[in-house]
Prior knowledge:
By secondary structure, the protein is of the alpha/beta class. The protein has one domain: Vaccinia Virus protein VP39 (Rossmann fold), CATH 3.40.50.150. The protein contains six helices and seven strands. The chain has a seven-stranded mixed beta sheet with strand order 3-2-1-4-5-7-6, with helices on both faces. Strand 4, helix 2 (88-98) and strand 5 form a beta-alpha-beta unit. The radius of gyration is 28 Å and the shape is globular. The chain starts with a helix and ends with a helix.
Amino acid sequence: MGARVLHxxxxxxxxxxxxxxxxxxxxxxxxxxxxxxxxxxxxQHTTVVAPQPEAGATLCAPLxxxxxxxxxxxxxxxxxxxxxxxxxxAVLREAERVLCAxxxxxxxxxxxxxxxxLRRLFGRSxxxxxxxxxxxxxxxxxxxxxxxxxxxxDVDRVYGYLGMLPIAxxxxxxxxxxxxxxxxxxAGGYWLKARKRxxxxxxVRPRARVRQHVLVGVPxxxxxxxxxxx
Length: 230
């Protein structure tokens, strides 16, 4: 089953990275061997960061405190990373920090409203190991949309893949990405693609100062006063 998931996600990656260019792509968290998801990347360089030394990782650092400058990365990939960490919003906020304006954010996740989510809940009720292994939680596409919108992203597209039921099956070699796509709400997994908004600066012109009277209610002198005394 794991091989089937990774096969479909690698095929979706070819679609998702089609218009992602720049110098640096950062994958936050490892997923699969030999970095299969970033093989289709069109950026000049790719870096995989993990919290501890792992095969395929090029940098070890806390995922919620990346040792990178703000606005320095062209694209960030989170392959099920938010489902594996204790504080997913902190990792997502850190990804927003390092992304440059118009940078691309790509997130893989399992649909909690599918058979994959039901199997996970069923396993938890029986005190079994998490399904899929090592996952802490599933995040729905709708919740993830709300989070990225709060952080200043616009969602470009959501790709749905995997069947509603977690059934093992041998991956089909050479299968086209279009044949894997499903409606996001009717799929076992989703791949969300978003762009970081450009923050525009609005120049505020200083208001013209209007001279006002300091004293109020003081009558102005008139020439009638002198004529009355005469």
